[in-house]
């Protein structure tokens, strides 16, 4: 089994061709670029990766291509949580088949107000059907989007009954007190802040890093904060302040469209602007406003190949 991923992870974007099919090579190349520019790992098929706008077949076919690539599988995490249990099982099996052990799982999110017993049954059946001891499950807590939160009682039950399988959480709630409570309550449970705004704070209370959408563009600064924290450097707080300013500026814009606009400009690759409906590319005035806002917080992307 591979070591758990810790530190800085970008919730990677999915690149699309002009016909809105997945640009497989573009997405793989972007993942390589992230790993070379501050990231310790890359999550694919998260919210910012437009996973729920992709069919199951598209995701399975992409995973075949990912498995055939030269990306380091021990640095990759795949979002496999779907509304339908069989889809979650198929994606998780494929993830393991290509050598990736880390899976980020949304709860089954269409039916609202499920009981903890119902959610427990879902995850228990996923694990039974997958039947692979290598699997590392990370819970995706994003109640603003899924409307199905993970209670601490449920997390405690899963940890007790499936030791070594439920390894951590991506907490995208924006509630630092919840992140802190999980880090302090659950020993060996890796808490990732869902925003780099709380990267240093979550590390200080026992969390392990961040898995963040805006890390597609802030990965270098994220990496600098994480490295400074690990080294006990006195400038960690100052670097975090700069990083927070960049995150706050970025989150004023639709995540996928805004991030893709910045990547399109830096790479010269216009197809980076492609998003699937209901998302839309940024209109010209919003794109210019984004660039101006990022200039105010001293933002600069590393060089990208077209």
Descriptive report:
- The mean pLDDT is 97.
- The chain has twelve helices and eight strands.
- The two termini are 36 Å apart.
- Strands 1-2-3-4-5-6-7-8 form an eight-stranded parallel beta barrel, surrounded by four helices.
- Helix content is 46%, strand content 12%.
- It has one domain: TIM Barrel (Alpha-Beta Barrel).
- The chain is an alpha/beta fold.
- Strand 1, helix 1 and strand 2 form a beta-alpha-beta unit.
- The longest helix is centred in the C-terminal third of the chain and has 17 residues, at 215-231.
Quick summary of this structure?
Helices cover 46% and strands 12% of the residues.
Radius of gyration: 18 Å
What is the general shape? globular
CATH topology: TIM Barrel
Low-confidence stretches: none
Query: What is the oligomeric state here?
Result: single chain
State the order of secondary-structure elements, H for helix, E for strand. EHEHEHEHEHHEHEHEHHHH
Number of strands: 8
Give me the CATH architecture, please.
Alpha-Beta Barrel
N-to-C terminal Cα separation, in Å? Answer: 36 Å
Helix content: 40-55%
Number of domains: 1
Identify the strand order in the major beta sheet: 1-2-3-4-5-6-7-8
Q: What's the main sheet like?
A: 8 strands, parallel, barrel
Number of helices: 12
CATH superfamily: Aldolase class I
Q: So what's the CATH class? A: Alpha Beta
Rounded average pLDDT? 97
């Amino acid at each position: 089994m591979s070591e758990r991923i810790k530190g800085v992870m970008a919730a990677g974007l999915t690149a699309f061709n002009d016909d809105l099919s997945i640009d497989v090579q573009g997405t793989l190349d972007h993942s390589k670029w992230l790993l070379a520019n501050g990231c310790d790992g890359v999550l694919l098929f998260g919210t910012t990766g437009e996973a729920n706008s992709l069919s199951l077949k598209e995701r399975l076919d992409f995973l075949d291509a990912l498995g055939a690539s030269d990306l380091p599988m021990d640095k990759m995490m795949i979002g496999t949580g779907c509304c339908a249990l069989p889809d979650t099982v198929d994606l998780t099996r494929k993830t393991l088949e290509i050598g990736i052990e880390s899976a980020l799982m949304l709860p089954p999110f269409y039916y609202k107000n499920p009981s903890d017993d119902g959610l427990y049954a879902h995850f228990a059946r996923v694990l039974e059907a997958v039947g692979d001891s290598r699997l590392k499950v990370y819970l995706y807590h994003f109640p603003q989007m899924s409307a199905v939160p993970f209670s601490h009682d449920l997390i405690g039950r899963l940890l007790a009954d499936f030791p070594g399988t439920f390894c951590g959480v991506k907490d995208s709630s924006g509630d630092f007190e919840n992140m802190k409570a999980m880090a302090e309550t659950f020993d060996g449970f890796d808490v990732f802040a869902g925003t780099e705004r709380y990267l240093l704070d979550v590390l200080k209370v026992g969390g392990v890093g961040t898995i963040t959408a805006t890390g597609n563009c802030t990965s270098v600064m994220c990496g600098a904060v994480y490295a400074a924290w690990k080294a006990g450097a006195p400038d960690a707080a100052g670097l975090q302040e700069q990083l927070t300013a960049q995150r706050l500026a970025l989150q004023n814009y639709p995540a996928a469209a805004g991030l893709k606009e910045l990547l399109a400009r830096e790479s010269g690759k216009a197809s980076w602007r492609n998003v699937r409906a209901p998302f839309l590319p940024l209109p010209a005035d919003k794109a210019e406003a984004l660039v101006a806002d990022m200039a105010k917080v001293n933002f600069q992307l590393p060089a990208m190949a077209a």
